């Protein structure tokens, strides 16, 4: 769904001659065993992992580059946090 919406925006901007929008970070989600698991940005490679919150029904993990800047994240049942991450990583 997300890719379809972003793709539609890219096509519309191209047709109308509007400048391209900001590059969106990678994003994926899945519902598993009552959890909404969402992944944003870059989580692979040589990254530091910072566990911000871990509870039985929620979690929040940041992935940091060598300078300590957040470049990705994984969360479960934290849609507000993920929406903020997506905006911040796109900016």
Structure, explained:
This protein is an alpha+beta fold. It has two helices and five strands, in the order H-E-E-E-E-E-H. The protein has helices spanning 2-16, 79-90, and strands at residues 27-32, 35-41, 48-54, 59-64, 70-76. A five-stranded antiparallel beta sheet has the order 1-2-5-4-3, covered by helices on one side. The longest helix is centred in the N-terminal third of the chain and has 15 residues, at 2-16. The radius of gyration is 15 Å and the shape is globular. The model has no long low-confidence stretch (mean pLDDT 89).
Which secondary structure elements does this structure contain, and how are they paired or packed?
Elements: H1 2-16, E1 27-32, E2 35-41, E3 48-54, E4 59-64, E5 70-76, H2 79-90
Antiparallel strand pairs: 1-2, 2-5, 3-4, 4-5
Structure keywords:
91 residues, alpha+beta, five-stranded antiparallel sheet, 30% helix
What's the gyration radius in Å? 15 Å
Q: Give the spatial strand order of the biggest sheet.
A: 1-2-5-4-3
Distance between the termini: 21 Å
Structural class: alpha+beta
Unreliable runs: none
Sheet with the most strands, sense and barrel status: 5 strands, antiparallel
Oligomer: single chain
Listing every helix as H and every strand as E from the N terminus to the C terminus, the arrangement reads: HEEEEEH
Average residue-wise pLDDT: 89
Count all strands and give the number.
5
Shape: globular
């Amino acid at each position: 769904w997300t890719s379809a919406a972003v793709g539609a925006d890219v096509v519309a901007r191209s047709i109308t001659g509007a400048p391209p929008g900001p590059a969106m970070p990678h994003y994926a989600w899945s519902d598993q065993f009552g959890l909404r698991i969402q992944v944003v940005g870059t989580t692979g490679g040589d990254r530091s992992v910072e566990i911000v919150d871990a509870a039985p029904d929620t979690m929040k993990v940041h992935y940091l580059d060598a300078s300590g800047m957040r470049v990705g994240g994984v969360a479960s049942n934290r849609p507000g946090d993920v929406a903020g991450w997506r905006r911040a990583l796109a900016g």
